């Protein structure tokens, strides 16, 4: 593999090199190197920063809130009509609201099935 370097950053990774501007250079690399890595002249470093637990939980809540919003119309409609909200919808929405009791990120969530 070849990494294309510009200003100490990997801007492309290819099987074979091709002609580029003189401000860029090709460097041999293994298949773990990816776009955005830093290159110090001898080794590559990933610049990927893992999200904090709080950031993971915030993202989980954001997706959960969007799923709740998708069914808000059902609750509103039944309230306006004066009818009962179907129990399956109540169960689904309660499971969504409680999702952070069992999951801490999108990586470990099991979403309830929408009725």
Class from secondary-structure proportions: alpha+beta
Radius of gyration: 24 Å
Separation of the first and last Cα atoms:
48 Å
Largest sheet: 3 strands, antiparallel
Helix content, binned percent = 25-40%
The total strand number stands at 5
**Uncertain parts:** none
Q: How would you write the strand order of the largest sheet? A: 2-1-3
N-to-C series of helices and strands: EEEEEHHH
Shape: elongated
Average pLDDT rating? 94
Number of H- or I-type helical stretches: 3
The figure for the number of domains is 2
Beta-strand proportion:
15-25%
Characterise the protein shown here:
The chain has 115 residues and is an alpha+beta fold. The chain folds into 2 domains: 2-45, no CATH class; 53-101. 34% of the residues lie in helices and 17% in strands. It has helices at 53-70, 72-81, 87-97, and strands at residues 2-6, 9-14, 25-28, 38-39, 44-45. Strands 2-1-3 form a 3-stranded antiparallel β-sheet, with no helix packed on it. Strand 1 (2-6) and strand 2 form a beta hairpin. The model has no long low-confidence stretch (mean pLDDT 94).
């Amino acid at each position: 593999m070849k990494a294309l370097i510009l200003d100490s950053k990997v801007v492309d990774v290819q099987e074979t090199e091709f002609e580029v501007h003189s401000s860029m250079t090709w460097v041999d690399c293994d298949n773990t190197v990816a776009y955005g890595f830093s290159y110090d002249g001898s080794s590559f470093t990933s610049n990927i920063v893992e999200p904090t637990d709080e950031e993971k939980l915030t993202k989980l809540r954001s997706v959960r809130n969007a799923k709740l919003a998708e069914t808000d119309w059902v609750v509103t409609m039944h309230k306006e009509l004066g009818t009962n909200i179907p129990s399956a919808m109540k169960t689904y929405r309660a499971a969504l609201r409680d999702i952070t009791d069992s999951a801490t990120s999108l990586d470990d969530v099991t979403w309830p099935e929408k009725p």
